[in-house]
Amino acid sequence: MATNKNAIETQTENAPVDDSRRERSTISFPYLDLNDAIVVAKGVHAVGGKNCQQEQLAAQLGIEMNSSKFRVKLNTSRIFGLITYTTDIVFLTEVGLRACDDKTETAARVDAFLTVPLYKRVYQEYKGASLPPLTALENAFIGFGVAQKQAANARQTFFRSAKQAGFLDADPKRLVLPSVKDRAGSHETNETISTSSGDSGREESKKKVIRGEDGDGGGTVQDTLLLGLIEKLPPPKSDWPNDLRRKWLLMASTIFDSVYTGGDADMITVTVQKDSAK
Prior knowledge:
The chain has 13 helices and three strands. It is mostly helical. Among the domains are: 34-99, Winged helix-like DNA-binding domain superfamily/Winged helix DNA-binding domain (Arc Repressor Mutant, subunit A, Orthogonal Bundle), CATH 1.10.10; 117-165, no CATH class; 188-261, no CATH class. A hairpin with a 3-residue loop joins strand 2 and strand 3 (89-92).
């Protein structure tokens, strides 16, 4: 029997591998468009203001919470930088909150579009130039890290989202940054940002990030996500129960997965153990 088992293992190892089935994209992009992502954000806002339970959001959207459709919608909104979520709770980001306000939604759409790694790469690559023909653009997507079988769908979703964010208003064949106020990444907001706490030190720190003085040279939605995460920390020496600490850590893991590369969110687990004797 051992010989047969070894023979089977050898045949399996030497069998041809179907690369097309195993091919994965190495750059992040959504399966649904920007409008779909904003529907999710507005669903959270309608139910709980800044956050809500996943089951509440699913009911608001009219979808089964355990369905793949709900997961795709959540992930789409996350990739656009509108929400973060744990296994239980969905949180609106700063951009997500602005997307739910009629006065700031237009600017939030621009920021959300540029949050998507693939879309930001395309914008940077073809800034000031016309987009290539459809087939050439799909090939460019593949070069950026999109799996070949997903390139056509990625291109279609890209164009819908670009139109919904206003990047094609000036020229349907060219990505042009819309001229809007109150963008998180815009220099127009440098001197107008405030915080509810009135902490001048924190306010100045946020201004520096948006001016690009404390990071990679530009204020991005990713910067805003990290700042929002820090702002959710309670004041020093205040009471902070373990269950709330766990929720913060889970949210941090989700945000880190959105902002940074090279990690594996599935390898990070957060558990709360009973306090040992002091």
